[in-house]
Amino acid sequence: xxxNAVVAQSGGPTSVINASLQGAIETLLxxxxxxxxxxxxxxxxxxxxxxxxxxxxxxxxxxALLSQTPSAGVIGSCRYKIKSEEDMMxxxxxxxxxxxxxxxxxxxxxxxxxxxxxxxxxxxxxxxLVAVGIPxxxxxxxxxxxxxxxxxxxxxxxPGYGSVARNIAINVLEANExxxxxxxxxPVLVIGVMGxxxxxxxxxxxxxxxxxKMPLLIFLPEALSKDDWKGNLExxxxxVNETLRKHGRCIVIIGEGVNVGDLGILKDAFGxxxxxxxxxxxxxxxxxYLNGLDRKDEQGRARTRLIVxxxxxxxxxxxxxxxEIAYVSEVDRxxxxxxxxxAAKLALNEENGYMATIIRVPGEKYEVVYDKVPLEVVANSAxxxxxxxxxxNRADVxxxxxxxxxxxxxxxxxxxxxxxxxxxxxxxxEYTSAGYR
Length: 437
Fold this sequence. Notes:
alpha/beta; about 15% strand; Rossmann fold; 2 domains; 7-stranded mixed beta sheet
């Protein structure tokens, strides 16, 4: 007898999350085992509320557009943590009522925990259900540790990361052009990037400048002290001024989770910090500290900590980093589709309790294969950024990170015009501008 399938999404969206949705849907719709494919509106909440969108009834053209559609607005997502037995029993009740035999949940480690719980309870309650996870997270923290062959165990990289990495790299390229143009008045630009507890996203800034020609500093949450926020601010200031001595300007990339003091952070149902809703941001605190706003004189004028004239500006790209389709990595989009399709194949093969995963083939040529891992292995687990990939000066990453990450951003970055510094001969006496005397 044919059964129905439910697909759902959880957690923060990505620019390629719908590609995974499309891969899963198209694979399910081709199967003789499937009657209807439903999309749970707003993730697991859609199951609890019995709000199941009939995807089988949708125009095929709309399904085909999914991989070109950013974020998770088509069927929605949520950050709802299953805490009660009552919720779990409600999920089973809804699945039984709608003859659901396949449940595909796309998300991070918390989502894999939910999928695992549903799988275990379904078996306990006599529900013939196959639950499979689809990996997704821009933080790239779903998976195992770095292995000696330069790849990561369990899941080498997570769909969504390659696109946010490309986004960050292009933003750095553009910021460098602005900083070159305006550094006589704004010598320092501090850019905050996402990554609440792990440094893969700020590290991606180095992909814009693998030869290290820019005056670029990169601060990861793991690179600085977890406790001494004052010491962190002082160290960042020292590194900025060292860069200013050499180049006269500086671009600072800082992960939102770097400890620079109390930011007034809110937390979601899973206890995760929500930096986009905080009272202050890391880049704002750093720029204010560099500008000396904490030590104004009696006239209310700031006393800068910069060794050159001008100010430090800051920018917060915000959630646009994870949703913009214009900066999508084609490698990321393709792999997101394929891992979604692979998850559907696992489900149709009755392989219950697994997450589809991406495994990188070791070697100089970039190549991946799709495999599976038990949900219990990835549920509520998170990898860390390798310490060996943090540069000795704690303000950069190593070449090994560049080698690992560069294939994920999907092809070359834009190239901007560069004039050689060929000047006309000086015919007048030396002159120092009045404002610089």
